[in-house]
Design a protein that fits this description.
With 303 residues, the protein is α+β, with helices and mostly antiparallel strands. The protein folds into 2 domains: 137 residues, Beta-grasp domain (Ubiquitin-like (UB roll), Roll); 157 residues, Fumarate Reductase Iron-sulfur Protein, Chain B, domain 2, CATH 1.10.1060.10. Strands 2-1-5-3-4 form a 5-stranded mixed sheet. A hairpin with an 8-residue loop joins strand 1 and strand 2.
Amino acid sequence: MDRPSERIEDTRSGSRGSPSGSMTSAEANAADSFLVRVLRQDGPGLTSYWETHRVAREPDMNCISVLQKIAERAETIEGRRVAPVAWECNCLEEVCGACTMLINGRVRQACTALVDRLLADRPGEIELRPMTKFPVIRDLVVDRSRVFAALRKVKAWVPVDSYLDMGAGPRQSQEDQELAYQYSKCMSCGCCLEACPQFLKIELVRGKGESETDFRRRLDEANRQAFLGAHAIAQVELFNLNPIGSMTARQRLDVLTGEGGVQICGKAQNCVKVCPKGIPLTTAIARANRAAVRHVVRKWFDL
């Protein structure tokens, strides 16, 4: 009668009788469960560490539901109680871009990463990591403020004078409308930036005695000098295509040809491969390069 209770205890600890204390893929599938390895970090600048959880497999799970299951139990395979894993999500339908992370080594949205497909490619285990190009706030939550700083830098909006009804605006060709629609689908998720070899991580440490204002000024300067990224280049194209936005096109092109501009792009084309919305980022970069050359030549000749 002692053996059954020992087997139950082994199941709860995640060992299932394995000398190494870890489940094999066959055992995980047989038990209708799988392992989830999460790279955790308790705060900015702290050392990261791996943690493994066991999650019961259910139909139609995605990685958000996996993290919810981990939070519900908050216990490692060794039986150690831990704080729930921190992550971000909003829409749960691949629109907000908040849940970007590395899943089995690939940057993508957690809400559309289906467990059944992940386990088919890598049986028995799923690996979750935060993006590597942004400072970690905690666990899978990163500071994406640089993404939005780049959009402010290129003035990614259409300026308006008022909210008065000014009638119909200028007409736009069908071709420009279709291209603009593709660019407008960007949700600032950061996937293209994570995959870009030229987009490098910026993580500054606030100096002793340095004021918050001085630190922010130093961070803003570092961001200003760094590569804008494919998302910002595509937004330059979007708003320069707009009949109203085109009136401030030169301001955006000044940024595009300045420090950290389109000339930094190495044409690796990783961005377009990982974009969850299928935005033609390489088309935007090619068009931006052509516009940048024309802009520089016009400035040379004061046209």
